[in-house]
Amino acid sequence: MKTIDLKDVKTGDILMTSSNSKLSKAIQSFQKLEDKHWGMWSHSGIIWLAYGRIMVIEAQKRGICITPIEHYLKPEFSLMILKPHLHIDGSEMAQQMLPYCGNTDYDFFNLLFSQPIKILFKKWIGAKKQKARKFICHEWTAFSYNRYFEPRYGIIYANELQVNAIDLCKSKFFDKFILNK
Q: How confident is the model at residue 161 (pLDDT cuts 50, 70, 90)?
């Protein structure tokens, strides 16, 4: 896989992460049942270039939040950037995402029950329709992409509630790069 430098990331690129934390390892163990290669990526967020800084808008246990990229530049993280093939207007995408920051909860049910059951039994038990009130990281990423691209090109992810890291990584919509730290 090709590499990319931090200076080459743009608003709308997706940051995929993997680490040795207990939660990351637990997520990876389920996802690797579905795909051994792409299942190693356990978290995603969307890059936002703001005021000369690189930030990540992501779903964490505290909800949708903004995290400086420096948090992920530590040695314990492996990082991959997914760059979309289509142009993203960074200002428009940020305008769409920012109202959710600090106002939207994390979807613990999806993380702990819906996603594992989807992988283990190929059955979805989670919500049927997104109400934009709770997200896990991959669901947030798919939701944001659908909201941005739908008026321009149509829906990118038909089942955004069910999206996991594997779905993001396998998408032909992106070029994949390992991030040089």
A: confident
Select from 144, 136, 131, 145 the least CA-distant residue to 165. 136
- Cα R_g (the chain), whole angstroms: 15
Q: Rounded to whole angstroms, how far apart are CA atoms 156 and 173?
A: 8
Give pLDDT tens digits for 15-39.
Answer: 999 998 888 898 899 888 889 999 9
Give the mean pLDDT of the chain: 93
* Domain limits for position 116: 3-180
Side-by-side strand order, sheet with 174-180: 3-5, 174-180, 78-84, 14-18, 43-50, 53-60, 63-68
Q: 53-74 pLDDT, tens per residue? A: 999 999 999 999 999 999 999 9
How many independent structural domains does the chain possess?
Answer: 1
Strand, coil or helix: what is 123? Answer: coil
Helices (H), ranges, the chain: 22-34, 90-97, 108-109, 115-121, 137-153, 165-170
Question: If we measure between CA atoms, which residue out of 168, 162, 165 comes closest to residue 128?
Answer: 162
| CATH code, domain carrying 68 | 3.90.1720.10
Closest CA to 59 of 133, 154, 8: 133
